[in-house]
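Hi L.,

You mentioned the student needs an example of a multi-chain input paired with its predicted structure. This one should do, with 794 residues in total across all chains.
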Amino acid sequence: MTNTTDKKTGISRRSLLKTGAAAVGFAAGSGVITGFPTIWAQNPITLRQFGTGVSNLNAIADKCKADLGITLEMTATDSDAAAQRAVTQPDSYDIADIEYWIAKKVYPSGVMQPMDVKKLKYYDKIVPLFITGKLTPDSAIAQGTAPHTVGFVEAQDAKTFAKEPTQWMTMVPTIYNADTLGIRPDLVGRDITTWADIMDPAFKGKAAILNIPSIGIMDAAMIMEAMGNIKYADKGNMTKEEIDQTIDFLIKAKQDGQFRAFWKSFDESVNLMASGEVVIQSMWSPAVAAVRSKGIACKYQPLKEGYRSWGGGLGLAAHLEGAQLDAAYEYINWYLSGWVGAYLNRQGYYSAAMDTAKQFMSEDEWGYWVDGKAAKGDIMAPDGKVMEKAGAVRDGGSFVERMGKVACWNSVMDEDRYMVKRWNEFIAA
Amino acid sequence: MGGDRPSPLLSPISNFARRGANSEAANLPPSGGDVRQDRGGREGSQLARLSALRDTPGLFQMTVVLNQPVATTAANPARRRRLSIGTLAPYLQATPLALILGTFLLLPILMIAVVSFWDYDFAAMYPDFLTTNYADTLGSWVTWKTYLNTLKYAAIVWALTLLIGFWVAYFLAFHIRTTAMQMVLFLVCTVPFLTSNIIRMISWIPVLGRNGLVNSTLVQMGLIPKPIEWLLYSEFAVVLAMVHLYTLFMVTPIFNTLMRIDKSLIEAARDAGASGWQVLWNVIIPLAKPGMAIGTIFVVTLVMADFSTVQVMSGGQSASVALMMKNQMSLLQYPAAAANAVVLLVLVLLMVAGILRIVDIRKEL
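Structure written out for the whole complex:
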């Protein structure tokens, strides 16, 4: 499609020169710039990538430019806007960097095309969690929108997800992690072992959960189940009754004054924890690192029920063709080839192809971030700041220990709208 | 809005103007165009005396002016044709403003009203005519509770800002002798407004927090055994921040009306034997009512539309109408948010209409 439009624009450009500069400007804006034909291949190709911010990192764009000559134009949005944009403006991006639960909403609308695994150089290196759903052959498959359930389609033009791995992959995983509760070890005054501990009367007025309905409800579900109040068939896809029970429980806890606040953004969660307003709350791992970087003790506490996990991946827009499609494959192969993986691992996330990332990390880095060993020297953040002092051990331990204990994945429920309505009631109550 | 109601409280200026207008009108043939032009001219000279703040009432007057000729010209079609340029001029004068307001205010509001009837899912909106958005909004106890909560904030914040605002304005207007000093002190009042709303709001957090300035001071002084929890992330915090943010909107219009009170009225009251309180109650407050009404409109509309203060200062624990809308928008439920916006708009307009009904804000202009 790009090639044909290029031919057309080539002609129209000539004719447009006669008709007016304004029209040329419009044509340039609408695709002449991005879709150079193969004769221009020695010139840099631009890929427009949009996504949810976590992995829209400038360092990756810079390195991509240096290694491949491909210019990455990145746009970051929040996840709901990303879902909307993926569906409603499919021509505005070449690569969608979205979470798997978004893909579950977006992919069936036909705006993306699957990737041929034969063209993915490092397909065999991708962590099996994204292929079969099992990190190790004997691990259990987690609830929610597990990535492997939306990872493949039956055929190139299929819109429904395949039950088994096929030749056609919807998204190549890029970045994922396991979330749990963050605590202030100096202020909680006892061992925290279960999600139920956040409801301990001892922490009345000192607990917080996040006010993003689709994720907050999952944390609430982990808490509910840990307290033995309910046993969900699937936490990631609750029935109306289950939603009612969960929200009613939250409303009661709120009215009893259990919560200090509900946070919506990363920095809010950091401030709540750093100021001591809250001693136990749902948290994201970079937020824990941010609290620690202020010299305040903060722990990403592993809990016996397991983690709530999330993952994102790169998907191709349906309109990609020819040279641009080749460039996109080249970019994705490069993404999995190790440098990016090492970069993400050093931030405390996990990369999809661990084996390739290992080659780009020092033994000590690999030991700390992935193997769960004590750091021999200081652990640096990618920007050169000291993140952890020598001797530190990562909360939750090794990659296998953490990702092997995922209880559920971020997901989108069939009763999504009802859930959001009830969640609003919880916030208003 | 009640603009043509003859009011016994008309200021001498407008009384004079009215008398002038009446006599001129008597001399002239009963032509809509002429009368209107004359009124327009008077309007202009009056407007020239107005401070920037009083533009709003100016608009009301303009509406009256524009409405008037329609009825009269219809009665005199022949006249109208002959005076077509004269008839057209004021319309032309009003065109730029009408265009701006039409494009940037009326059209968007109309679009919101239209969208509020549409259907939607996570990805898109579908043109339709559904009342479910309204049924969902008005049928849910969350909406009612949230509206009540927002109205509660509006009432408390209004009462406090009115009290504080009047006090400050009274002090500036009657206790500061020189105009220069009055202006300096008035500018001092506006100094906090040199920073953004958000910063003024967020700066309360380290002050009120559990380990914040207030709590740590009180604990160290031994006045309280442990930190007071309700200082931050509570309704108290929301009201405090709102009063802090919005008091100036009350001070400015009240100060403006107080400055325009004829000092001889106060002297006359004193001569008649009124005490200080009686002067305040029977002379100053009645004359300050238009300023209070304008301030009230500012404060009430600001509080009703607020979401960031409620979100930040209550720690997400309290709900306001605008916050509810923001939640819906962030989940891309635009039609639901639009329905909510229409309901809020109607409510706020009714409140403003009520205020204008009680106090004639034109009478001091």
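You could point out the following to them. The domain at 135-358 of chain B is CATH 1.10.3720.10 (MetI-like fold). The interface with chain A takes residues 122-124, 136, 140-142, 145-146, 149, 205-206, 209-212, 229, 232-233, 311, 315-317, 319, 324, 327-328, 330-333 of chain B (CB under 8 Å).

Best wishes,
N.
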